[in-house]
Structure formats: structure tokens, C-alpha cells
Design a protein that fits this description.
The structure is a single chain. The chain is α/β, with parallel strands linked by helices. It has a single domain, classed as Rossmann fold (3-Layer(aba) Sandwich), CATH 3.40.50. It is about 35% helix and about 15% strand. It is built from 5 helices and 6 strands; from the N terminus they run βαβαβαβαββα. The structure holds flavin mononucleotide (FMN). The site of flavin mononucleotide has 16 residues, from loops. Flavin mononucleotide (FMN) binds next to loops. GO terms for molecular function: FMN binding; oxidoreductase activity. InterPro entries: Flavoprotein-like_sf, FMN_Rdtase-like_dom, NAD(P)H-dep_reductase. This is NADPH-dependent FMN reductase-like domain-containing protein.
């Protein structure tokens, strides 16, 4: 059977971002779980102004093809002022139909104790507006500035189990919705 295709969107382009290490960790875990996956970095798709889906992205790469083929999405995002990074919104607003009827899981990141819990809540209306199915099992990466050693290895092994729970939910919805979308065709 073809593997489910679940790209991972790294939602911040900040210089020195700790979320990058989280995204690489989630990527490795998602591959081990059995998903077809790749990292999508907002740095590669961000523009200075919003370019909506119906406007041509002149000379700019678009991530439309990646998301059109995807069976679901994982977003790895830090919390900035109780919200999401501006570049996430710019990149996310580039597409529309590519997201519809697909599951999405959010991994929140912060250097505090809550691991971006408020960010996840703020993202939900956006995901719902784009007809995505937002999952219950978010993973919150807290105190991220202390979470990885110098070699980039995660110090807290409990995240493996938390991600497994998120992947299980994602797997169920991705498979069920894929079947349902194919019936629509
Ligand atoms: C502009 C800005 C706003 C921030 N606001 C919050 C916040 O509201 N809550 C929080 O827990 N951390 C906040 N942080 C700190 C992040 O948790 C911290 O940068 C962390 O390392 C995760 O983000 P990173 O990928 O940018 O490193 C903020 C950081 C920046 C740069």
C-alpha cells in the first residue's frame, strides 16, 4: 500500500529559530512511523506581501504541488505574542483548495512551560476556515532552548510517545479522508 504523504511545515523563518530542531526531530519520527514526508520551510515560500491563491506567484516558488499531493499536514510553529509567526500566515494564505478535507496536527513550540499551547488555539479558526480537520493530539514542545544537546539530539525521550499518539490519530484521519475524497472524484 502507498504510504500516506504528510509534509511538515516549519512556520517560522526567524534567524536562530529553535523550532528548526523540533521540525527535524518530528520529521525523523514521522519517517520512522511510516509516513512519506518532507520538511517545508516558510523561508523558501515567504513573500513580503500576501499573494492569494487566485493570483499568479510571479517567479516565486509555490508549495501548491506539495500540499495538493499531501494526505494531511503537520505544522511545527513557535508561539509569538500568543499567536503564530507572520510568515506562517503569508505562506498559508497562498493556497486554499489544496488543504480541504485533510487532517492537520500542530506541534507548538516555546521557551516557556506551555509549549505554544495558546498558539495552537489561535490557529484553529484558520485551519477550520480552510476546511481542514484539526486533530486533538497536539504536541507541545516546552523549554525548547534547553531541549536539544549540542549534537542536536533531543534530551527528553517522552516526546517520542507523545508524537506516536499524534501520528496514530493523524494516520486514522488521513486514511479515512483520503478514501472519502477519492469517492468524491
Ligand atoms: C516575537 C516573539 C514573540 C514571542 N512571544 C512568545 C509568547 O507569546 N509566548 C511564549 O511562550 N514565547 C514567546 N516567544 C519566545 C519563543 O517561545 C521562543 O523564541 C522559542 O525559542 C520558540 O521560537 P523560535 O523557533 O523562534 O526559537 C516569543 C519570541 C519572539 C521572537
Amino acid at each position: 500500500m502507498k504510504k500516506l504523504d504528510i509534509p511538515i511545515l516549519l512556520a517560522t523563518g526567524r534567524q536562530g529559530r529553535f523550532s528548526e530542531a523540533v521540525a527535524h526531530y518530528v520529521l525523523a519520527q514521522a519517517k520512522d512511523y511510516g509516513f512519506e514526508t518532507q520538511l517545508v520551510d516558510v523561508r523558501d515560500y515567504s513573500t513580503t506581501v500576501t499573494i492569494p491563491p487566485w493570483e499568479e506567484k510571479k517567479g516565486k516558488k509555490t508549495w501548491s504541488k506539495i500540499m495538493a499531493q499531501a494526505d494531511g499536514l503537520i505544522i511545527v510553529s513557535p508561539e509569538y505574542n500568543h499567536g503564530y509567526p507572520g510568515e506562517f500566515k503569508i505562506v498559508f494564505d497562498q493556497l486554499e483548495k489544496e488543504y480541504a478535507k485533510k487532517p492537520v496536527a500542530v506541534c507548538g513550540v516555546s521557551d516557556g512551560r506551555f509549549g505554544g499551547a495558546r498558539l495552537v488555539g489561535v490557529m484553529l479558526p484558520i485551519l477550520r476556515t480552510l476546511q481542514m480537520v484539526a486533530l486533538k493530539n497536539s504536541v507541545h514542545f516546552s523549554t525548547v532552548d534547553e531541549l536539544f544537546d549540542e549534537a542536536g539530539k533531543i534530551k527528553d525521550q517522552s516526546y517520542q510517545g507523545k508524537l506516536k499518539k499524534m501520528f496514530d490519530e493523524l494516520n486514522w484521519y488521513a486514511a479515512a479522508l483520503k478514501k472519502a475524497r477519492e469517492k468524491d472524484l
